[in-house]
Design a protein that fits this description.
Helix content: 25-40%
Number of helices: 5
Radius of gyration: 32 Å
Strand order of the largest sheet: 9-7-12-13
Order of helices and strands: HEEHEEHEEEEEEEEEEHH
Largest sheet: 4 strands, antiparallel
């Protein structure tokens, strides 16, 4: 019995010794084969956002963005707060191919009130995004115009483009930024107060009429950018003229 017990003890000792040798060896072989495939680094995955430490080949297989060997997940850009222009919307300015301004009192003209909806690369809305409209000196904003705002939980913010002036066919005439990213760059910023004197008056009517009747080239009063000053533009001009819209 003693001899049998001794043999069993020796077997257990040998098995333990083999495990001590084999386990590290297996781990070394696994890590060695992974290193052979390529060193690891941060693999940034989008939609939904995730990050894993992988080889470049593994990251590519998952359609991720490999930051480089030795990088960490802390280096991955988080897409949630980064606006994407093609996914974002500006209503009604996108349909008008430009911005429309009008003196704000007594009642803002509909097309001068815009809604900006900000989305990221996953097509998710971006709440709490800082949005601003940037104009050139050729456009004069009313003191009460709302050119800055923060998106709500649905990624939207409403701004009021009270003001006048005309910028036609000029790159970067009107910019819309969200979290510092330019999501729109318009070449046209038009207004029913074309001379930017702070009121829609007779001088503006004369200018509008000339474009409407075709006696002058269509530029400042083709608000929807369809190539002519038409009835659709008159619908935007008339209320401001009749009510004498003005800046405070």
């Amino acid at each position: 019995m003693l001899a049998h017990s001794s043999i069993q003890s020796q077997k257990r000792t040998l098995a333990a010794s083999l495990l001590e040798v084999c386990i590290p060896l297996l781990l070394f072989l696994v890590s060695g084969s992974r290193a052979f495939a390529g060193d690891t680094g941060a693999c940034c995955l989008l939609c939904p956002y995730d990050c894993q430490i992988l080889t470049e080949a593994e990251c590519t297989a998952l359609e991720g963005f490999f930051l480089g060997v030795g990088t960490s997940c802390n280096d991955c850009p988080v897409p949630a707060d980064v606006p994407v222009p093609s996914a974002s919307e500006v209503t009604p300015s996108d349909a008008m191919n430009g911005l429309f301004m009008a003196p704000i009192l007594p009642t803002p003209i509909s097309a001068s009130v815009i809604t900006v909806t900000v989305r990221n690369s996953c097509d998710d809305v971006v709440p709490s995004a800082g949005v601003e409209v940037v104009l050139t000196p050729s456009n004069s904003a009313c003191p009460t115009a709302v050119l800055f705002g923060t998106t709500n939980s649905e990624g939207a913010v409403t701004l009021s483009l009270g003001g006048g002036g005309c910028v036609y066919d000029v790159p970067l005439a009107g910019l819309i930024k969200a979290n510092g990213v330019v999501i729109r760059s318009y070449d046209h910023v038009r207004s029913s107060d074309g001379d930017a004197n702070g009121v829609v008056d007779l001088a503006d009517l004369v200018e509008f009429s000339a474009e409407f009747l075709g006696t002058s080239s269509t530029k400042c009063h083709d608000y929807d950018d369809d190539g002519m000053a038409s009835l659709k533009d008159l619908i935007l001009f008339a209320p401001g003229f009749v009510d004498g819209n003005h800046c405070p």
